[in-house]
């Protein structure tokens, strides 16, 4: 399996979570459509299994995506290394506005990839 570029105009976060000898951690890299790294993170996790560590890494990735202002301009593809099943809707707030005034991110798992797109509510 090799890394694939996100679609033109999209960003892609590759994330992982691991547990080894009762210690957990996770990390990720955000890349643009040209494959240029735009953000990185890694660190320990209090998760007790790899699936939870990976889900926590997805949460960190989404916080970075929103916090860096990317959520207002670029759709996001999150790719995970396992078969973590996830279908979730996460509200976003921009500049103190409520979700009803602004929008949210819709996520669903398809072939070990999570696609997030912006839309109005």
Write up this protein.
With 121 residues, the protein is α+β, with helices and mostly antiparallel strands. 18% of the residues lie in helices and 43% in strands. The chain has one domain. It has 2 helices and 7 strands.
The succession of helices and strands, N to C, reads EEEHEEHEE
Using the CA coordinates, give the radius of gyration: 14 Å
- Detail the poorly predicted runs: 85-95, 97-121
**Ends apart, CA distance between termini:** 37 Å
Largest sheet: 7 strands, mixed
Strand content: 35-45%
Number of domains: 1
Which percent bin holds the helix content? 10-25%
| Shape field | elongated
Q: How much is the average pLDDT?
A: 74
Total helical segments: 2
Structural class: alpha+beta
Short key terms for the protein model shown above:
121 residues, alpha+beta, seven-stranded mixed β-sheet, 43% strand, elongated, disordered C terminus, RNase H type-1 domain-containing protein
Set out the fold topology.
Layout: E1 11-20, E2 23-31, E3 37-45, H1 50-67, E4 76-80, E5 87-91, H2 99-102, E6 104-110, E7 113-119
Parallel strand pairs: 1-4
Antiparallel strand pairs: 1-2, 2-3, 4-7, 5-6, 6-7
Compact overview of the structure:
The chain has 121 residues and is α+β, with helices and mostly antiparallel strands.
């Amino acid at each position: 399996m090799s890394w694939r570029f996100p679609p033109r105009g999209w960003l892609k976060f590759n994330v992982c979570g691991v547990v080894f000898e009762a210690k957990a951690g996770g990390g990720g890299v955000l890349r643009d459509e040209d494959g240029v790294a735009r953000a990185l993170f890694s660190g320990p996790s209090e998760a007790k299994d790899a699936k939870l560590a990976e889900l926590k890494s997805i949460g960190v990735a989404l916080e970075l995506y929103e916090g860096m202002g990317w959520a207002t301009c670029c759709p996001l593809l999150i790719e995970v290394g396992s078969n973590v099943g996830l279908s979730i809707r996460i509200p976003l707030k921009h500049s103190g506005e409520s979700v009803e005034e602004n929008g949210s991110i819709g996520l669903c798992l398809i072939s070990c990839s999570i696609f997030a797109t912006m839309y109005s509510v």
